[in-house]
Amino acid sequence: MPRPLSPQTIALIKATVPALEAHGLTITRRMYERLFENADIRDLFNQSHHGETGSQPKALAQAVLAYARNIDNLGVLAGAVERIAQKHVALNILPEHYPHVADALLGAIGDVLGEAATPEIAGAWGEAYWFLAELLIGREAAIYRDLAARPGGWNGWRDFVVESVTPESETIRSFVLVPADGGPVVRHEPGQYLGFLFELPDHGVLKRNYSISCAPNDRAYRITVKRETAPGLPAGIVSNWLHASVGAGSVLKVTAPAGDFFLDRQSEAPVVLVSGGVGLTPMASMLETLAETGPERPTWFVHGALNGRVHAMRDHVRKLVASRENLRAHVFYAEPEAGDRPGEHYDASGLITAEWLVAHTPRESATYYLCGPKPFLAALTNGLIGAGIPPERVRYEFFGPADDLLEAPRQAA
Length: 413
Hints:
Elements: H1 7-15, H2 17-35, H3 39-42, H4 55-69, H5 78-90, H6 98-113, H7 119-149, E1 158-167, E2 172-179, E3 193-200, E4 204-211, E5 221-226, H8 237-245, E6 251-254, E7 271-276, H9 280-292, E8 299-305, H10 314-322, E9 327-333, E10 348-349, H11 354-360, E11 367-371, H12 374-386, E12 394-397
Parallel strand pairs: 7-8, 7-11, 8-9, 9-10, 11-12
Antiparallel strand pairs: 1-2, 1-6, 2-5, 3-4, 3-6
Helix pairs in contact: 1-7, 2-4, 2-6, 5-7, 6-7, 11-12
């Protein structure tokens, strides 16, 4: 554990909250400008959260503000710290990378705040940064040790060969990956993800995380990836490349499984798996796992898709549910098409709502696992908690920057 922050530092950090509320996003944008002047450091980051969506500076600004507001009660941020550490492991972040971030952050504070960034303020933020950095470094070291020690485990980037590619819908494909060295893989927790490093022509080094969509095993992983082509948004560089250029025999660089969102396999309580779109990938891993472990645990698989053309893994889920009496599935299509047959391809039109979940699942005892776009998660999470479901029984995953939602710490599985 790092040395506790001094009372003077705590007071100075709290005093900077108004400045962070006013200028936090400008500071984090400037921080990344300074940080990315070093190409080696730039390549550590997932650039889709910068150039493609621009979401990371905003997320980090929220995280820095939350840290300052809670500097005297950091226990409320424990879940967020764990989430960031898991993301860092997936990106292969190491202790030697932290000084670069410190220099960029403290320099950005000085650039933006000017004379208001007194030596005392700079010193306090330096102490606060390294306090948090040492927490993360310690936790990440423990995760790395655990992964390396487990059967089939490894640290850093490992070569995997694509064994097969399966179209799951018009926009989604599954890729089965096996180690190029012929060895086993570490068994993941259902719901976790893998980190990937790609070197693409005209784009350089890119990093992405993709959820594992199969049950834990010793031989292979499966990822299920949507080709991102939403109107008005930049095309997903990596997802489009995977769909267009990756086939059986392709080699990809992969980090070991990571993530704090996963199925609690020790519990016997009912499970409700709720997903929207490609958010079904971690839920498929959980559902496969529950189908393999026997009929004891009641499970609901509730999925929302736009229509049948983009509904992934429909037949796979149907077979899993048919294999066990304790498994149930209910599918919503937001905009069914002429060829989509109710009762066969889907069960209801419209969107999944918290009201429907409360009425059709065991609200008194179930744990709800949710994954999908942010509006989907916000509506269902707030709706379930508003209906009286305890927050510790509403667990969620979203696809975005590691620091996002830091101001609303969640229950980790």
